[in-house]
Amino acid sequence: MKRNKYSRLSRRLESQSRKNLFLSVLGIIIVLILLVKFGIPLLVNFSLFLSGQKKSDGSLKSAQSTYISPPVLNPIPSATNSAEVLVSGIASKNEIINLYINDSLSEKKETEDNGNFSFKISLKTGDNKIKAKATKTDKESDFSNELVATYINSPPSLSVDSPTDGQKFEKDQNTLKVLGKTDSGVRITVNGFWAVIDENNNFSYSLPLQDGDNAIKVVAQDQAGNKAEKEIKVTYSP
């Protein structure tokens, strides 16, 4: 009787062992399949990523070593009545600065130890577009910021249409209108006070008169500082 019990127990344990072995083998097969399907491609992709990262780092270092920052030009007056202007700026030291005026190479100069540079250039009448590039060995930067200097070497036009020189005013004519015309972009003062200028460059100013002689000085000044002046005298008798 005991032998039968042991025999059944033995068969049960043997069956359980075979079942466990089967499940273990099945699990190993599944793991191998997953490893082949996902693990190896993942390892390959990771390896390619590392390789690409190294190439990217190398390309970045190479690009950084060949890049030259463009110089920076300091502001200058937008209009001037001087035929020469000083153009200055900053870049890196030991660089050659190529200065261009109206897209033509004008001058070259090496930067100072602190990166500063300056050029004294001659202007042509009208607009002068100024920009620069930096070079070092065989490398060249992009263009700098562009400056525009307008050279105006003649005074603005100025005509005073009313009143006329020597004109006389009486009684209730104690205020007169100073009227005239000038160029675009010009400012007008009458005895030091700003006149009103319309879109057609006509100006006007209301001037109160004093008893006796009244001197009227009209000044036109353009953006470059050029001036034109006219002086007239009128008489007021109340």
Give a written overview of the molecule:
- The protein is an alpha+beta fold and 238 residues long.
- Among the domains are: 72-151, Sandwich (Immunoglobulin-like), CATH 2.60.40; 158-237, Immunoglobulin-like (Sandwich), CATH 2.60.40.
- It has one helix and 18 strands.
- It has one helix spanning 2-66, and strands at 72-73, 79-80, 84-90, 96-101, 104-110, 116-122, 126-136, 139-140, 147-151, 158-162, 168-170, 175-182, 187-190, 193-194, 196-197, 202-208, 212-221, 227-237.
- Strands 2, 4, 5, 7, 8 and 9 form a six-stranded mixed beta sheet that branches.
- The model is unreliable at 58-64 (pLDDT under 50).
In short:
This protein has 238 residues and is an alpha+beta fold.
Total number of β-strand segments? 18
What structural category do the secondary elements indicate? alpha+beta
Instruction: Give the CATH H-level superfamily of the domain at 72-151.
Output: Immunoglobulins
CATH fold annotation of the domain at 72-151: Immunoglobulin-like
Question: Treating each run of at least 4 consecutive H or I residues as one helix, how many helices?
Answer: 1
| Mass-distribution shape | elongated
Q: State the order of secondary-structure elements, H for helix, E for strand.
A: HEEEEEEEEEEEEEEEEEE
Distance between the termini: 156 Å
Could you tell me the strand content as a percent range? 35-45%
User: What is the CATH class of the domain at 72-151?
Assistant: Mainly Beta
Low-confidence stretches: 58-64
Global Rg: 44 Å
State the major sheet. Answer: 6 strands, mixed
Chain-averaged pLDDT: 85
Multimerization status? single chain
